[in-house]
Amino acid sequence: MKRILILLVAILMVVGQSFAQNINNENSEKMNNTAPTEHYTFELSDKVTRQKVTFKNRYGITLSGDLYIPKNVGTKPLPALAISGPFGAVKEQSSGLYANQMAVRGFIALAFDPSYTGESSGEPRNVASPDISTEDFSAAVDFLGIQKNIDRNKIGIIGICGWGGFALNATAIDKRIKAVATTSMYDMTRVMSKGYNDVVTLEDRTKTLEQLGEQRWKDAENGTPAYQPAYNKLSGGEAQFLVEYHDYYMTPRGYHERSVNSGNAWTITTPISFMNMPILSYLKEISPRPMLLIAGENAHSRYFSETAYNNASEPKELMIIPNAVHVDLYDKLDKIPFDKLESFFKAHLK
After folding, report:
1. Residue 212 belongs to a domain
2. In 3-state terms, what secondary structure has residue 63?
3. 8: in domain
4. Are 213 and 325 in contact (CB under 8 A)?
5. Residues 2 and 202: beta-carbon distance below 8 Å
6. pTM to 2 decimal places
7. Which of 56, 90, 252, 291 has the most neighbouring CB atoms within 10 Å?
8. Closest Cα to residue 290, out of 185, 198, 168, 194?
9. Element housing 144 (H / E)
10. What percent of the chain has a predicted confidence (pLDDT) above 90?
11. In this structure, are residues 230 and 265 in contact, taking their beta carbons and an 8 Å threshold?
């Protein structure tokens, strides 16, 4: 059974949860994580203003975002960045921290909640799709490009964790995006299809898909999707990177009540489309636009960035942060190379 469930374990590892129960757990409850709150996990710079915004993607889902604008910048249209991630996080966490820092450096930055999560719309709650997640980045570019204080020819994107993969995927297809950077990047379709370090066999995959199919029958009979067991505490013996996820999502450092990863849960059947629709197939088509991949030296996810770097065409750059683990690039200001991100985007959004 452990081997059969390894694909589903992969997604839960990404968000710092431990799938110790059977996939067919019927006691999972629907997560309600849309209650209003003004809780942010970082301090807003006094050099920046933040305003709530909404915009729609081409599937009609209303996305909620925070727009970070530098103060005292005059009337000239500015370069802009769309930022999202990590996978299962909300805009009040890492993406907002990044947007705040990049606004201090002269960019208008939009941090947004993905479809079906946070304050964005979409039913059922806490479900994801590689196609819709890719589209969400392009919808953010739509929004930025029609703002009078933004130069639509100077728009880039930053993806964190699983949204790093979606950022690369969006850049490949959306030629309006002039430059892309990722930190602690995950290819979510790869990890859900093949497990960590690609260890999943065809037999494992087949059995998992059979179980997911059976879960669909249950969801159809009930009229609502079942959710994976919410994870709230460590039980001991977890892999170190799971401990590190917990340290971010389940402590005051990074906890946010709307975050899927902070004690909430994805639908059980969320992995289905990820197992059938690989992203990054057209990675080379990002060229000649530039790509910057940033990963921690000791991150369990480092191999995703290295693979993407090897498969991409020039111009490309891989930056390894010494002594950093995956979650260090979520919020550690002494680890995240914001000066490098500033110089990268200023060089290529001009």
Report:
1. no
2. strand
3. no
4. no
5. no
6. 0.92
7. 90
8. 168
9. helix 130-145
10. 85
11. yes
